[in-house]
Amino acid sequence: MSQAVSAPITGDLSVAPGKSPNFAGMSPGFTEQESPSRRAVLAGMMLAPAAPALAASVPASPDRSAWDRAYHEYRRLRLRMDAYYALGPMNWANEAFCLAKLNRDEEPEKFDEAADALRNEEGETGRYYKPVDAAAIALVRMPAPDLDAVAFKIKLHDDHLSASDDEKIAWAYIEDDLRRLAA
Asked: pTM (2 decimals)?
């Protein structure tokens, strides 16, 4: 006898696990859980017409596309800065300085040139880190569309804003996001 025939009809919605003929092990999201019963699937289908009314009752979330654009710009600028330090001019100046430092006693003029070049390059670093910090502040001030965005704001705080004037501002925006997303 099938589950639908043998189950008493009470009118209550019940989610009872059952074995589906299409075993879940063949699906990409297999988690070794039993598939839902036919009754649970049918109950879910009965709720489908109510979805527009339920969606209308949920407060509108912030514009996801604006967050995505700002996040993309932050990442682009961050990658540019990381490349500058890891394999660009700052890296070259550091390597030249380290090599000159090894031979400092034999070639003091090369060491002085390398030290000057490193100092000059350090003067250029603002062109790379200041736009990243500005993009981080813009993201923190933007309403987070979801909890993952809030978690990212906390990381931005640790990476860019701690010990700055914007540190306390970040807390206010993060707390506001969490309050708004609790609904």
From this structure: 0.61
74: confidence class by pLDDT, cuts 50, 70, 90:
very high
Contact 60, 145 (CB under 8 A): no
Same domain membership, residue 47 and residue 73: no
**Structural contact between residues 20 and 1, judged by C-beta atoms closer than 8 angstroms:** no
Instruction: Find the mean pLDDT for residues 61-89.
Output: 92
> Is 10 or 53 the better-scoring residue by pLDDT?
10
Q: What is the C-alpha to C-alpha distance for residues 123 and 160, in angstroms, rounded to an integer?
A: 19
Query: Among residues 11, 34, 57, which one ends one of the domains?
Result: 57
The three-state DSSP-derived secondary structure of 87-123 is HCHHHHHHHHHHHHHHCCCCCHHHHHHHHHHHHHHHH
